[in-house]
Amino acid sequence: MLKSEAQKEVRTVLNTDRIKARMDELHITQAQLAREIGVAAPTICQKINNIRPFSLDEAERVATVLEIPDNEFGGYFFSR
Fold first, then answer.
1. CA dihedral sign of residues 60, 61, 62, 65
2. Distant-in-sequence, close-in-space partners of 20: CB < 8 Å, separation ≥ 6
3. The pTM is what?
4. Is residue 62 helix, strand or coil?
5. pLDDT at 13
6. Cβ atoms of residues 28 and 65 within 8 Å
7. What are the pLDDT tens digits along the chain (80 aa)?
8. How far apart are CA 79 and CA 76, in angstroms?
9. Can you give the pLDDT at residue 10?
10. d(Cα 5, Cα 32) in Å, to the nearest integer?
11. How far apart are CA 71 and CA 9, in angstroms?
12. What SS3 string covers 6-45?
């Protein structure tokens, strides 16, 4: 069965290199980031490495912790 256009899932991929670089700039470890956004350290590792997706709420919390400006949000969380 074919999905209608409205039902098609769009897969977006986190820009891992950019997130990790920003974490390095701010001297934030994955464990610290996980604690700040309320997930386990192994979970944040999987999300940063595109094994598990971020929810929009999680992505917004990461952006807040990493001080990512609103106009740069897409460059971190919606690369392909």
1. positive
2. 48
3. 0.81
4. helix
5. 74
6. yes
7. 454 444 444 455 789 999 999 999 999 999 999 999 999 999 999 999 989 988 889 999 999 999 999 999 999 987 65
8. 7
9. 42
10. 40
11. 24
12. HHCCCCCECCHHHHHHHHHHHCCCHHHHHHHHCCCHHHHH
Residue 37 tokens read as 């956004």
The amino acid that residue 60 corresponds to is E
Quote the tokens at residue 59. 């992505």
Fill in the amino acid letter for 80: R
Residue type, 67: E
Structure tokens at 80: 């392909």
- Residue the block writes with tokens 């700039």: 25
Which amino acid, residue 72?
E
Residue 65, token pair as written in the block? 């912790």
